[in-house]
Structures are given as C-alpha cells and as structure tokens.
C-alpha cells in the first residue's frame, strides 16, 4: 500500500466576523488526528486560561531567545505582548502524521507557506461585506470605533486572499465544515504527498 | 456572493483492473451536475450501443476533418479504429458550469492538461500490484497472453502517475468514491477558480 510521508499543515485565516474560531473548534472535534498548534505568548495568563491548552506562557526573555534560535515559524507583537508559533511543535506533529491546524493572520499564513511550501492555506470569508459588518455589530461587545478598526483591518486581510490555496465561503457553518473536511481529504490524496519511490516499488513488485 | 467562473474538468486515468469504469459510473450517479464526455469513434456501433450515449459514431473522413480543424483535445488509433475527445463539448459543458468527467488513458490525460491547465487529473490505483493482477485474472474473459499484455501496459501507465494531481487508492469502492467527491469539492474551493475582480468587489462594497 502506498502511503503519505507526513501529516498536513492546515492554515486557516479570515477577517474577524468570518466565523473562524467556531469553525476551527468544530473541525478539531471531528477527529483526534487533528492537532491544534498552541501558541507561545508573553502575555500573562487570564483567569481560566490553562498552560499548554490556551497558550504556552513564557517570559519576554525566553521569547526573545526563541526568536534568536529561529524556533518560531511566525511571531508578532500585538498590544505590547508577543505571540509566536513554534516550528518544533509543528515538525513533531507532522512527523507523527497528525494534521496540524493553525489559526493565524494573513501575515503569519504567508510566513508559514514560505517555511512549509506544502502547507494548505485556507481563507474563510462571510458571504458578503454587509454580512461581515452585521456579524461584527451583532457582537455588541465592541464600540463603533473598534468595529471600524476591525473593518479596516478586514479589508487589508482580504487583499491577501489571492495568496491562499482555497477560499471557503462561510454562509452556513455545517456546509463550511464539510468544505474544510473535503479540502483536507483531497490534500491527503495529492500526488506530491506520496513518495515517488513507493510508486516505483509498486510497479517493480510485479 | 463570490462565484466560480466555470465548471471543472475531471480526468480519471488508471491501469485496467483498477476499477475505473465502475467508479466513474458511481460518481456520475451522485449528481446531475456531472457531465460525462462522450467520445467520437470511427468504430461501427455494436448491438445495444446508442449514438450520443456510448459514442458519437462518425466516418473516418469526418474524423479526419475534425482532427484537421483541431476539434479534438486528444485522439488515438486503437486496433484500426479512431477514438477522440471533442474540445467543443468540453467547452460548452464547463461554460454551463457542469463538471466534465473524462475517462482517458495517461497519454490523453497529459494532453488534456496541456490544453486545459486547470483540469484536475486523478490517477486511480488498486492497493497493490498483486491485487491488480488478481483482479485481471478474475475477469476470466481474457487469455494469459492478454493479461500479460495488460500488465505490461499497466506498468507503463503507472510511470505517468507522477504527472497527475491526485492519487486515489481503490481499496474499497465506497471509500474511493468519497475521496473522488472530496477532491471535486476541494477543487471547487481553489482560490485560482474565483475571479480576482470578485474579491476586489467584495471589499469595495464596504
């Protein structure tokens, strides 16, 4: 039987309001094969946040050393705190044939693609701009100023969409989940993921 | 809502014994969106064969004219008869957003890819060479000499597999069908199939 070499790296990006977090949660529940890559951060843990589940909490010094050692695939500073994705955790997971799921912004997505050209970049969008705005306003938790900032940021993020491999329109969460699962199943069948020696062995076993 | 431009062109190739014909039949039954591209041939119709269903039956002169007018994406002469795939039928079907399914050999597959770079090439294999041989022998209808010829031909065909986009191992027909459907669903979501203007419109509708 011809087998794949490694697990997949699945990157999901979306402007806020596209429903990324709920969809990722649903995706992870479908199979124990999925591995959600936990980020490192210098932000102090909030109440209820668990080390190794929500984040790996590290000091700024430690984070800086990790940057210097090239341990992050991508990292960013947001509101004075550092956030980073560990390359080591990804490498271990794909070697163990797990499918790594990463929820990152468009900048992080393109950086992951540069380091892992075989990663699968999926861009999620709501069915229309009006719907995106509506979903953001319905959250109520945010001020008008914050909503405007998020919309401006969303606009910038959509400009990166053409660099992604797939576009999933999140009109209905169940349909969007089905599309995600189809993309992952299809990517498992991509010829480039099978070792060429195995195809050679296949015919030489005659 | 952002929409795809055209239907897909799905090319399925396999050595005989891989179960291609049964799988294609099952695939076509899943949705009226699929369009099975009927070939043209100079071979006289057999009893029960229907014009436009099994083949379009044409004279050798007509076939020759079609070649000269560049109407075939691919054609071949087998046992003194000509067989060809019409580009016009494919073009009409994808414009109508149908998903065209083509069952062709590896030579035909690579020719279709050259003319339609966005076509989806799927290679089907049985789980092992032993299984391929077993399936061919179980058909009983063929002599030992014919089986040897088919095995030799199969070996040549598998050498083309790396040029295909996907590899589906047909261990179980239901699982193989699920994989085919996942590949088709995923290909519908490929970013390159969405017009860039539509993405621009999406953000300019702000």
TrEMBL record, chains A, B:
GO MF annotation list: ATP binding; GMP kinase activity
Cellular localization per UniProt: Cytoplasm
InterPro entries in UniProt: GK/Ca_channel_bsu, Guanylate_kin-like_dom, Guanylate_kinase, Guanylate_kinase_CS, P-loop_NTPase
Catalytic activity: GMP + ATP = GDP + ADP
Limits of the Guanylate kinase-like domain: 7-185
Gene3D superfamilies in the record: Guanylate Kinase phosphate binding domain (3.30.63.10), P-loop containing nucleotide triphosphate hydrolases (3.40.50.300)
EC top class named in words: transferase
Tagged with keyword Kinase: yes
Subcellular location, principal: cytoplasm
Keywords recorded for this protein, A-Z: ATP-binding, Cytoplasm, Kinase, Nucleotide-binding, Transferase
Gene Ontology terms: cellular component: cytosol
EC numbers on record: 2.7.4.8
Binding site for ATP: 14-21
One protein family per Pfam: Guanylate_kin
Family under the similarity heading: Belongs to the guanylate kinase family.
Function: Essential for recycling GMP and indirectly, cGMP.
Listed PANTHER family: GUANYLATE KINASE, GUANYLATE KINASE-RELATED
NCBIfam families: guanyl_kin (TIGR03263)
Protein name: Guanylate kinase
Native source organism of the sequence: Aerophobetes bacterium
């Amino acid at each position: 039987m011809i087998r794949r070499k490694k697990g997949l790296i699945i990157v999901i990006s979306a402007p806020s309001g596209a429903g990324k977090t709920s969809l990722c949660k649903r995706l992870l529940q479908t199979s124990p094969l999925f591995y959600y890559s936990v980020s490192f951060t210098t932000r102090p843990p909030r109440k209820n946040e668990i080390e190794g589940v929500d984040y790996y909490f590290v000091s700024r010094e430690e984070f800086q050393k990790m940057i210097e050692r090239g341990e992050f695939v991508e990292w960013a500073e947001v509101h004075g705190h550092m956030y980073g994705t560990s390359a080591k955790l990804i490498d271990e997971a794909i070697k163990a044939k797990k499918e790594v799921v990463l929820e990152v912004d468009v900048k992080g997505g393109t950086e992951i693609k540069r380091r892992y050209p075989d990663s699968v970049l999926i861009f999620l969008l709501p069915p229309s701009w009006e719907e995106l705005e509506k979903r953001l306003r319905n959250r109520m938790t945010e001020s008008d100023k914050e909503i405007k900032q998020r919309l401006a940021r969303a606009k910038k993020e959509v400009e990166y969409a053409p660099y992604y491999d797939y576009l999933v329109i999140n009109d209905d969460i169940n349909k969007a989940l089905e599309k995600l699962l189809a993309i992952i199943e299809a990517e498992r069948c991509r010829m480039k993921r099978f070792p060429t020696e195995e195809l050679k062995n296949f015919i030489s076993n005659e």
